[in-house]
Amino acid sequence: MVPKGKLIAVGGNEDKGNGEGVDRTVKHDFIEDGILRRVVNEVGGPKARIALITSASSIPDE
Asked: How many CB atoms lie within 10 A of CB 19?
């Protein structure tokens, strides 16, 4: 079998806190900051076709 593409798993584990008393805006340049730059490089450049599968979870109450 010949592979037809690549599977790249990008994880989160982002702690957003509870938001109380926090008023901040953070702008990230995800392309240049590394995560998406690596994906773009792995798949063959900025004109490559990319499919995203999004999923979300939360920290359990217990």
From this structure: 7
pLDDT at 54: 76
Looking at the 3D structure of the chain, how many domains does it have?
1
Distances in whole angstroms, Cα of residue 33 to Cα of each of 17, 27, 52, 53, 54? 22, 11, 19, 21, 20
pLDDT surpasses 60 at 62: yes
Q: How far is CA 5 from CA 1, 29, 40, 47, in A?
A: 12, 26, 13, 15
Calpha distance 50→22 (Å, rounded): 35
In this structure, is the dihedral angle defined by the CA atoms of residues 18, 14, 61 and 54, taken in order, positive or negative?
Answer: positive
Q: What is the pTM of this model?
A: 0.46
Residue 31 domain flag: yes
